Amino acid sequence: RSLMPRTLDSQITVEKTPSYFVTKEAPRRIFNMSRDTKLIVVVRNPVTRAISDYTQTLSKKPDIPTFEGLTFRNRSLGLVDTSWNAIRIGMYAVHLQSWLQYFPLSQIHFVSGEKLITDPAGEMGKVQDFLGIKRVITDKHFYFNKTKGFPCLKKLESSGLPRCLGKSKGRTHVQIDPEVIEQLRDFYRPYNVKFYETVGQDFRWE
């Protein structure tokens, strides 16, 4: 709490750390800090997320094992290694249970990572509604950057340059054996179905 900036009654403090969602201690600690906290979770297809995670790590550590080697404990048996972070993070239904022990679903909003790219204004509109604030950010604030493959944010109130994601975002993913992708889809399917049922939202990750 002491690290949070001072805010007026008319302001909202936002703090983001991706690892919160998968950290066991986080729900209890945040609840103890403020049980009224509203939580926003950005999720994407867990297979794509795992490949993206690997691509990011590979750019920093080019000597790591192959994606296939890290994914399976036994590929011929289809045994996926859930101890590997890149795989474990995408098991959203499992992580969500820890949060639901402390926060009701009404205080958690899930953003589609795919729609955040294809319809950023629509997703941000839902976020603003969830926070109970006026829809200030609209489609006028976005344009699609073809080079990065992501939308960038325009600053309408100033002549400043558009805000785009950093160099680490939007890089081309490594090529993965289609059979491996299919095995991962099969692995995640029951977790995805459980997640859809729990949050009442179908993200269509197939």
From TrEMBL:
Disulfide bonds: C152-C164
Keywords: Disulfide bond, Glycoprotein, Transferase
A single GO molecular function term of this UniProt record: [heparan sulfate]-glucosamine 3-sulfotransferase activity
Keyword Transferase: yes
InterPro entries per the UniProt record, alphabetical: NST/OST, P-loop_NTPase, Sulfotransferase_dom
Domain Sulfotransferase: residue ranges: 33-189
Enzyme superclass (EC): transferase
Binding residues annotated for 3'-phosphoadenylyl sulfate, in chain numbering: R44, S52, K169, G170, R171, T172, H173
E.C. code: 2.8.2.-
Family designation: Belongs to the sulfotransferase 1 family.
Protein name according to UniProt: Sulfotransferase
Species this chain originates from: Dryobates pubescens (Downy woodpecker)
